[in-house]
Amino acid sequence: MLSRHARRILLVLLCAPAAALAHISGFTDTSIQITATGIRILYTLPSDSLLELNAVPGQGDVSPPPAYLAAVRDGWSIRAAGERCLITHARARALDKLPSYQYQLTYACPHGVDGLSIGYGLFFERWADHENFVRVFMAGQRQRMRFTAENRTLSIPVAALLAQWGQPLASGFFDADPNRGLKEALAGGEDALPRVVEPAASLGGISLEQLDPGFITLGLKHIFLGLDHVLFVVGLVLVTHSWRRLLLLVTSFTLAHSVTLGLSTLGLVDFPSRVTEPLIALTILYIGLENLWALRRRKQPRFREDGTGPVLRRAALVFAFGLIHGVGFSYVLREMGLREDLLGSLLYFNVGVEAGQLAIIAATLPLVLLWRRLSWGGALSALASLAVAGTGAVMFINRI
C-alpha cells in the first residue's frame, strides 16, 4: 500500500495534464515588405491562438478567419515620418491542410516610409513568452528579427539604409506568402504593380543560408512546455540501469523523431493532430506500464538482466514511438506557415529539441540513480512510473 504522502504526490501528477493541454504560449510568423508604394504584412498563426483575442465573445470554438480580422489589424501599428500609415487592404484566410490562419495587411504612408516604426502587440498580455518570428524585405535585402514582450517595436531608418546600400525601394510587392500565396483579386490599381519573383538573398550582408538561432530557443520551449514529451523521456530514464542501454534508447528516439519531424514539416507526410496527439498520450501510458512490468520482473528470484533481446525490443519500440512524437514536434513549425529558410529553421529547431531532451536526462538521471541506493528506491521508481502511466491515460482521454 502507498503511504498517504505518496498518494497525494500521485494525485498531483495525475492532475497535471489539465494544465498541459492548454495552449501555454504561441509562436507566430510574419513577412514584412517595405516598398515605394507601401508596406505589406503577411501574418501566420495557429488558428486556436485567436480564441485568446476575445474577438468573438462567448465563442468556444475557432471561428472563420474574417471574425478575427479586426482584432489582428488592431494588433499592428505602422508609423512613418511621425504619422500613422493607413490600411488600404486587409484580408484573411485559412491555410490548406494546416490548423492556421493567415492575415494580409497592406499599408500606405502619406509622407513616405522614412523614419519607419512597426509595432506589434498581440497575445503578450496572455502569453508573456509569446514570440513573433519576422523577416523584413526592403530594397532587395532581408533582415530577421523577433517581436517579444520586451521588444514590441521595430524602428527602421529607411533613408539611411538605402543610402548605405545604394539601392532604391522596389516599386511593388513580391509574392512572399509562405504557403503559396493569397490569390490576387484585389480591386484598384494594386494588381497592376510590378512583382519581384523572389526576394534577394540578404539584408546587410546576411547570407541566405545563414540560420536563425531563435529557432533553437523555440525547440527548447516546445520541449519544456510540452509535458507529454518530458514524461516520455523521464519514463525512459526511470528503469534503465545502464548508460549504454539508456544511450541506445535515447538514440533510437532521437533518430526516429528527427526523421518524421523533417518529413512532416516539409509536408512529405501528413497526419492530423487529432490522430497524432492521442497516439502520443498512448506512448506515455505504455512506457509507464512497461516500467512497472520491468520493476516487477526484477523482484523475481531468478531474474537476470543480461541478454540483448529485451533491450533491442524496447529500442525498436522506442524508435516506433519516436516516429509518432516527431510528427507532434512538427506542428509548431507547420502552424507558423514557414517556407523561407525552412531547412535552416528545421535544423535549428531540432537542435533545440535535442538540447531540451539532454537537459531532461541530465536533471532526471542523477536523481534516479540517487534514490535507487535507498531501501525504498524501487517503490519510488514504481510510484513515478505509475504517475507517468496515469498521466498518459488522462491525456489520452482528454485528447479523444
What is the domain total for the residues? 2
Dominant shape: elongated
Unreliable stretches (pLDDT < 50, length at least 5) are 1-25, 177-210
Helix content bin: 40-55%
Number of helices: 11
Largest sheet: 6 strands, mixed
Number of strands: 10
How much of the sequence is in beta strands?
Answer: 15-25%
Q: What structural class do the secondary elements suggest?
A: alpha+beta
**Radius of gyration based on Cα positions:** 25 Å
The largest beta-sheet arranges its strands as: 5-6-2-1-8-9
The span between the termini is 32 Å
Strand and helix order: HHEEHEEEEEEEEHHHHHHHH
Mean pLDDT: 77
In terms of topology, how is this protein built?
Blueprint: H1 4-15, H2 17-20, E1 27-35, E2 38-46, H3 69-74, E3 76-80, E4 83-84, E5 86-94, E6 100-108, E7 116-120, E8 131-138, E9 141-147, E10 153-156, H4 158-165, H5 214-225, H6 227-238, H7 243-265, H8 273-298, H9 309-335, H10 342-372, H11 377-399
Parallel strand pairs: 1-8
Antiparallel strand pairs: 1-2, 2-6, 3-4, 3-7, 5-6, 7-10, 8-9
Structure overview:
With 400 residues, this protein is of the alpha+beta class. The protein folds into two domains: 27-192, no CATH class; 213-399. The protein is 46% helix and 17% strand. It is built from eleven helices and ten strands. The chain has helices spanning 4-15, 17-20, 69-74, 158-165, 214-225, 227-238, 243-265, 273-298, 309-335, 342-372, 377-399; strands at residues 27-35, 38-46, 76-80, 83-84, 86-94, 100-108, 116-120, 131-138, 141-147, 153-156. The strands form two sheets. A six-stranded mixed β-sheet has the order 5-6-2-1-8-9. Strands 4-3-7-10 form a four-stranded antiparallel β-sheet. A hairpin with a 2-residue loop joins strand 1 (27-35) and strand 2 (38-46). The longest helix is centred in the C-terminal third of the chain and has 31 residues, at 342-372. It is elongated. It starts with a helix and ends with a helix. The relative contact order is 0.14.
